[in-house]
Amino acid sequence: QNGFSFHLSLVQNDIIYIIGGHSLENNIRPPNFYKIKIDLPLGSPAVSCVILPGGISVSSAIMTQTREKEYVVVGGYHSENQKRLVCNTINLDDNKIEIVETEAPEWTPDIKHCKIWFGSDMGNGSILFGIPGDNRQLASDANYFYILKCPV
């Protein structure tokens, strides 16, 4: 697709899974879910791509690993003006991948009502969330941080 950016990826053995994304051309976040398999025989590599059903509409989300084959997707955006306040668990199996919606944390009013949020995976099922300080109208260049601990 023209002008498409991917937002989440997982790797298991010789397979890359790409979830979500943002089409700049149409300004949409379709529920894309790609499985890219890479074979490295002698000679040139072989790459195959399959579009799988069951993806999620998301961009700019944060993903953390909670178990050996389990990941949690938190945050992100459904659209330019709509934050994604739900969480999803991704279970990888040798022959399948499953994405299910899971219970979201009790978001604070500051997080619910801010227009922008950002963060990063801290490892071991923990995610660091930040919101701009101008939501509280104190110091406009300050940021407020929260740590979300996903069950492991």
Automatic annotation (TrEMBL):
Record GO cellular component, one term: DNA recombinase complex
Top-level taxon of origin: Eukaryota
Record-level Gene Ontology MF annotations: sequence-specific DNA binding
Pfam families given in the database record: RAG2
Gene Ontology terms: biological process: V(D)J recombination
Protein known as: Recombination activating protein 2
UniProt organism field: Mimophis mahfalensis
Gene behind the chain: RAG2
